[in-house]
Amino acid sequence: MSSSTQPLTWLITGASSGIGLAICIAALAAGHKVAGATRDVAKASAANPDFAARGGIWVTIDPGHADSAAAFAAADRELGGVDVLVNNAGYWYIAGVEDISEPLLRQQMEVNFFGPVRGGNSFTGRASQGAYDASKWASEAMHEVLSREIGGEIGSKLGIKVLIVEPGGFRTTFTSRGIVDLLNEAYKGTELDKAITLVSNFDEDGLDKYFRGDTAKAARAIIDAIVDGHDGYLRLVLGPDCLAAMEQKIAELQRDIDATREAALSTNLDGA
Hints:
Layout: E1 9-13, H1 18-29, E2 33-38, H2 41-47, H3 49-53, E3 57-60, H4 68-79, E4 84-86, E5 93-94, H5 102-124, H6 137-149, H7 152-158, E6 164-167, E7 179-180, H8 191-200, H9 215-228, E8 235-238, H10 240-264
Parallel strand pairs: 1-2, 1-4, 2-3, 5-7, 6-8
């Protein structure tokens, strides 16, 4: 979205807990109009009475349902136009590739991938047609494509910008709502077994080692980046653990480039 010192209208999915709720509270504190999207307004209201007391508005949207595009559009009309859409809703499903349950995978993709697509299409449809944002690699890839499609002059005309938030481990209830599938016996004792065992044994009250992030600080960083226009970068990296992981990934990609450079430069047509 375009940078502005004026109050903005925010629509935040997955707003009833975790980073989504923290963004809601931070945006309200900064003087913005905020709508929190949730599957169950009554439950969200009861669990977070301060949200409405501070001026927040709950709206019913389930990103995992095929009809959520209509719900996004209805929320846009109700709010008088949305300036900032935060595609935050999602959950994790963990299984070895060989053991993935297709129904569970499809449901996760409905929430983590198609939910953001429907939300994005509901708003960009006012100005243009085409694919918008597009579990999380797929969504990030589509957001990156969108940032290029609407970059420069087009983005300026539409008043739309994309920011991809890359959070590390933050202290929320996220781990308690995931799905861990059964492990194939052939993978006992492998790295996959260790990873699934680790996730299965997460204790919400004892995550100091893996989840050190403060959601309130993350929310403030996100608000600041959006209001300031986040010029010069697409990804907002949050957390020392995420920074280290991204630096490791960059190093791995550079290793692959260095190892395959000769092959890469040898595949053009002769004389081309």
